[in-house]
Amino acid sequence: MLSKEIKQELEHYLKQDVGKGDVTTNITPQKNCEAIIKTNENCIVVGIEEISYLFRSRGLKVKPLKKDGQKVNKGTKIIIISGSNKKILTLERICLNILGRMSGVATLASEAKSKSKAVSLTRKTIPGFQMLDKKAGETIGIWSHRKNLNEMVLLKENHLNFFAGIGEAVRKAKKTGKKVEVEVETEAEAIEAVWAKPSIIMLDNFSPKKAKATIKLLKGAGFQGKIELSGGITLKNLSKYSNLGADIISMGELTKNAKIIDFSLEMKK
Description:
This protein has 269 residues and is an alpha/beta fold. It contains eleven helices and twelve strands.
């Protein structure tokens, strides 16, 4: 079931697209019709729930033929919509955009997941589309990391510069009552972080060799939290990081480089 927040975002997208009115559809003769959305590429389809909500909220009948998270081949019919041609025409592009973007993120994330079960999303999302980017990844079973800045504390380099040290930063962060993660860039910083006992230590921009050695060091020092690898990890080099012992491998590529999957809508009287 869609959250209130996601429904509000969907309404915002539609309002932004329609503006003061769909002038082309307004002059189009009214007819009842049937429309079929199909995919023009192989993909993992996600976004059916979202676009079904938009169509139904405008009084249209919707019959999903596939479920979110399913793998589909080029030419597969995804959903059938029936009712007013005017309503379908107004909703067409925004619904295809939502379906295309969410399916693009899910397809890329699924490819990464096949190489490592530890992969995670980041906040490198399209502004204004963050909740749906995150949901697309969650639908195929990967961690969305922080959904927003309030969900957990993540002490990165630019935050740590204003503290006396990692220990001070983590102690203050724990007072928020939130989960605390700290980013480190060297082995020395990693050991300093161990004594502060955050929930997660992120090894940022470590080479595979350096990451392996540092993970061994952290575990040898008794660190009981999770270890995350981040920075410069792509589908091309993921296999080099996947068996080093990290609990999380965050990949900005999964949202930053996700393509829009091509879907089309065909209408019949």
